[in-house]
Write a structure and sequence with these properties.
With 578 residues, the chain is an alpha+beta fold. It has 13 helices and 14 strands. The strands form four sheets. Strands 9-14-13-11-12 form a five-stranded mixed sheet, with no helix packed on it. Strands 1-7-6-3 form a four-stranded mixed sheet, with no helix packed on it. The protein has a three-stranded antiparallel sheet with strand order 2-5-4, with no helix packed on it. A hairpin with a 4-residue loop joins β4 and β5 (259-263). The longest helix has 7 residues, at 311-317. It is elongated, with a radius of gyration of 56 Å. The termini are far apart.
């Protein structure tokens, strides 16, 4: 460029002009660094396709629009403004990239396949990497085409072309080279993205076990590339047929589930039989097939535990073929003890109890304590939260005791919780009722007054108060009320005073003494057997001088006092003798 232009002789107007309308001024093309000297890396100001994109400062137009910079058969203008309305787009292509979508077909061949200068016919989308005519490919496929998945099989075109996994996708080609335009390269009906053998239709041998006379079902397609017809991922239709093998029993195959059912003959017991099958799929338009062999080890029909259910059926049912008590629809042996309660099934039926209920009937002495998994051992027949086995064998040594408790009595346990509806102390109240009342469910007489808690509730007395009962006796050491020590007053008894036992415990009291004619001869409050006491001397009658000794004879006393919040009265006769 420097040789062709005498930059020193150029005018300012030429420097600022864009001769080829490529968007870069002549000056920026010849002298990119603007130092007044052409170069370095200058471009040709007379070539609309020779410019540096970062130098564009003007709208591209004129010669640039009619040029074909990427030689793809489309002018730059047709690429950026396909509809020619003067506004870029829609669906424009890259004028500097002959294959905008990377599908290997130039943009021009996609838009104008016959090259007559008019779009079409049968043109393809130059922006869609999956829309092209294979025979028009002249470039190496790249860019968007490599990351696209044109056959929608879960693998990108690039993964299918080179077999290398793209971590951004779920499927992994595992090195297999497959057709990016065919979702099922091997034609087995299983798409390349999920087919473990995507280049070779594969059927794998199966093995199974069977019992003579009993149907055996094996999912033969489970380990094959082929999918059953019930699988929504199946791209075609799968068929199954038997082609050989030694089996002489009845064979049926179900394409909707991919299963094979075989009923062995009695003569095949204790041998291994084979069934060779062919599996095919029509996804590709042609039938693609593979074969495999099913080997079935056949055993004789047996019922090891004698419960009426064959071992084979028990294996299917998930029950124990060695335990006659464990079956579906079988009959346990009369000599067995299915609930582990110490009585045989026959004994329980004779006794009218349930041989399958560990808490119905039973004999502890017959229980096998070594069977800690038995229904009886694990059950809690009395509902005290302690298992039967733990109650009778606390140390788990397989022998009753020590310190064993009754597994049928919820009131007898070590650390258990009795039922609320039981009456552990036999006082007529349930444990729940006693707990509500705050009394001891294990003590028949919580307050110790010789009257049961239940009777006190009936009598409407307080079962927590030893002094509250009808006909009871307060516990020793409990003071409940006052009493007269002696109804005879003489100098030799209590020093001649009228002694009222426990009166000092009830200081809110009044004592009155009357003679035989009903005349009050004595009255005092807060009687205390000490200073405030009746000594046979009057303090309350005008005809009898106060402090005079009363004559020998019979008198009547009335004692009024308050016990707790209860007002009480005690009265009776006393005799004064001197």
């Amino acid at each position: 460029v420097a040789a062709r232009y005498n930059y020193a002789n150029t005018t300012a107007s030429w420097v600022d002009f864009d001769c080829v309308c490529d968007g870069v001024t002549n000056g920026d093309e010849v002298d990119p660094d603007g130092d007044g000297t052409p170069g370095p890396n200058g471009t040709d100001p007379n070539d609309p396709c020779d410019f540096t994109a970062s130098d564009i400062t003007l709208a591209q137009s004129g010669d640039w629009l009619t040029a074909d910079c990427d030689s793809d058969g489309l002018t730059n203008g047709d690429e950026v403004d396909p509809d020619g309305d003067g506004t870029p787009g829609p669906n424009g292509t890259d004028p500097n990239n002959p294959d905008s979508d990377g599908d290997g077909v130039t943009d021009g061949d996609e838009v104008d396949p016959d090259g007559d200068g008019t779009p079409g016919p049968n043109g393809t989308d130059p922006n869609d990497p999956c829309d092209f005519t294979a025979s028009d490919i002249t470039l190496t496929q790249s860019g968007d085409w490599l990351t696209a998945d044109c056959d929608s099989d879960g693998l990108t075109n690039g993964e299918e072309m080179n077999g290398v996994d793209d971590p951004s996708t779920v499927a992994n080609p595992d090195g297999a080279i497959t057709d990016p335009n065919d979702p099922d390269s091997d034609g087995d009906g299983n798409s390349d993205g999920i087919d473990p053998n995507s280049t070779t239709p594969t059927a794998t041998d199966d093995i199974g076990n069977g019992v003579a006379g009993i149907p055996t079902v094996i999912d033969i397609l489970d380990n094959d590339d082929y999918l059953d017809n019930g699988d929504t991922n199946n791209l075609g239709t799968t068929s199954l047929s038997r082609t050989g093998g030694t089996a002489i029993g009845v064979v049926t195959m179900d394409t909707s589930t991919g299963s094979l059912t075989y009923v062995p003959e009695e003569s095949e017991a204790d041998s291994t039989v084979t069934i060779i099958y062919e599996v095919c799929n029509d996804e590709s338009g042609a039938v693609v097939c593979a074969t495999a062999t099913v080997s079935i080890a056949v055993v004789a029909l047996s019922d090891s535990d004698g419960d009426g259910i064959t071992d084979a059926q028990e294996a299917i049912d998930g029950t124990d073929p060695q335990d006659d008590c464990d079956s579906i629809g079988g009959t346990a042996l009369p000599t067995s003890d299915c609930d582990g309660d110490g009585e045989t099934n026959a004994e329980e039926l004779t006794n009218g109890t349930n041989p399958n209920d560990p808490c119905s009937g039973g004999d502890i002495t017959g229980v096998d304590l070594s069977d800690t998994n038995s229904a009886w051992y694990q059950a809690d027949c009395d509902g005290d939260t302690i298992a039967n086995g733990t109650e009778v064998d606390p140390d788990n040594d397989g022998v009753l005791g020590p310190n064993d408790t009754n597994p049928y009595d919820d009131c007898d346990s070590n650390g258990g919780t009795p039922r609320a509806d039981s009456d552990c102390d036999n006082d007529g109240l349930t444990n729940g009722e006693e707990e509500t009342l705050g009394i001891d469910p294990f003590n028949i007489d919580t307050d110790g007054d010789t009257i049961s808690d239940g009777q006190e509730v009936v009598d409407n007395t307080d079962p927590l108060d030893g002094c509250s009962s009808i006909g009871g006796t307060p516990p020793e050491g409990i003071v409940c009320d006052i009493e007269i020590e002696s109804d005879l007053m003489t100098p030799v008894i209590n020093g001649g005073i009228f002694r009222i036992i426990n009166i000092e415990l009830f200081p809110d009291n009044t004592v009155e003494i009357y003679n035989r004619w009903g005349v009050k001869v004595f009255e005092i409050n807060s009687y205390d057997n000490q200073s405030r006491v009746f000594r046979g001397v009057s303090n309350g009658r005008s005809t009898i001088k106060e402090s005079d000794e009363l004559p020998v004879g019979v008198y009547f006393y009335i004692i009024k006092y308050r016990r707790n919040e209860e007002h009480k009265t005690l009265n009776g006769y006393l005799y004064i003798n001197r």
